[in-house]
């Protein structure tokens, strides 16, 4: 079930409907306020199509809480000596690997080899950030990072980690960006989510779309179409008022006050990759995955 990202255009083969989900969720199996069944029901009531239950150091139950309304992906949040949190998500609970004696890199490698999705969590949580950029550089083989974590709004540090994402992308660490709740209590429910484009709502279909980067990070701005024609990257939204194209090192390549826009790759270094930010009213913003100009980049 392992899938690679088409870094030239992550959305090239995507089709179907946009479906919203959260991949970082806690229940009473660790430090959450609701039991798994009630947590899943809350996500159904808030219009989510999928959710992953990722309790701290707790391998997933052999219980499938999925139904016609929502698909539940088995998961776990692992920490290394109380720090360096990361989530492992799969479709098969028995395939997730957790051994406290293993190093973080060993756990990442083992779970990726088993077909899992591995995300680095809330890099900018805490005053001494949870992951420095050098620590992120040192780790290899993970699927992506949380570019936004909602619960950190209630804690020290920053829930937004797009600056670290740009540093990673600039240094050719091709990693996906995720937006998660890190829900512990009902008050941590948010509009934020990962919006996947899939032809159906089967768990494996959703999971493959996540692994392949066929999703965007959503907070209020609805993207209808996003992709690439030749060397031109484009986005069409329902309700954006400003679109920003971001390039190498976080450079703003272009701003357009509109609900749709496009940008053509140039040959200078600022255009080694392009990602798109779509801004709406107030705090509304959605983020696409990055498009790289070429498959291979020399650092």
Describe it for me?
It is a single chain. The chain is of the alpha+beta class and 299 residues long. It folds into 2 domains: 17-218, TIM Barrel, CATH 3.20.20; 223-292. The protein is built from 5 helices and 17 strands. The strands form 3 sheets. Strands 7-6-5-4-3-2-1-8-9 form a 9-stranded mixed sheet, with helices on both faces. Strands 12, 13, 15, 16 and 17 form a 5-stranded antiparallel sheet that branches. A 3-stranded antiparallel sheet has the order 10-11-14, with no helix packed on it. Strand 15 (273-279) and strand 16 (285-287) form a beta hairpin. It is globular. The mean pLDDT is 96.
Tell me roughly what share of residues is in helical segments: 10-25%
Largest sheet: number of strands, sense, barrel closure: 9 strands, mixed
What gross morphology would you assign?
globular
| Overall residue-averaged pLDDT value | 96
CATH architecture of the largest domain: Alpha-Beta Barrel
CATH topology of the largest domain: TIM Barrel
Count of discrete domains = 2
Class computed from helices, strands and strand pairing: alpha+beta
> What CATH first level of the largest domain would be assigned?
Alpha Beta
Count of separate DSSP helical elements: 5
Major sheet strand order: 7-6-5-4-3-2-1-8-9
| SSE pattern | EHEEEHEHEHEEHEEEEEEEEE
The CATH homologous superfamily of the largest domain is named Metal-dependent hydrolases
Alpha carbon gyration radius: 18 Å
Beta-strand residue fraction: 25-35%
Record field, number of beta strands: 17
């Amino acid at each position: 079930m392992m899938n690679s990202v088409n870094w030239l255009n992550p959305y090239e083969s995507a089709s179907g409907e946009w479906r919203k989900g959260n991949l970082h969720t806690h229940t009473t199996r660790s430090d959450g306020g609701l039991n798994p069944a009630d947590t899943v029901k809350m996500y159904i009531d808030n219009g989510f199509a999928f959710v992953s239950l990722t309790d701290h150091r707790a391998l997933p139950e052999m219980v499938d809480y999925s139904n016609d309304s929502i698909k539940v992906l088995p998961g776990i949040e692992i920490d290394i000596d109380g720090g360096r949190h990361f989530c492992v998500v799969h479709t098969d609970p028995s395939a997730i690997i957790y051994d406290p004696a293993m190093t973080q890199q060993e756990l990442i490698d083992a779970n990726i080899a088993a077909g899992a999705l591995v995300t680095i969590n809330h890099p900018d949580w805490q005053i001494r950030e949870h992951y420095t950029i050098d620590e992120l550089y040192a780790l290899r083989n993970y699927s992506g990072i949380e570019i936004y974590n909602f619960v950190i709004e209630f804690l020290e540090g920053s829930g937004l980690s797009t600056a670290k994402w740009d540093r990673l992308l600039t240094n050719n660490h091709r990693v996906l960006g995720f937006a998660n709740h890190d829900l512990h209590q009902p008050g941590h429910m948010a509009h934020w989510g990962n919006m996947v484009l899939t032809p159906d709502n089967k768990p494996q279909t959703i999971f493959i779309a996540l692994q392949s980067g066929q999703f965007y990070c959503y907070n209020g701005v609805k993207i209808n179409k996003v992709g690439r024609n030749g060397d031109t990257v484009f986005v069409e939204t329902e309700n954006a008022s400003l679109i920003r194209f971001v390039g190498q090192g976080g450079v703003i390549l272009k701003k357009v006050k509109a609900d749709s826009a496009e940008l053509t790759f140039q040959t200078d270094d600022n255009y080694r990759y392009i990602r798109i930010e779509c801004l709406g009213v107030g705090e509304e913003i959605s983020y696409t995955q990055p498009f790289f100009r070429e498959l291979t980049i020399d650092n």
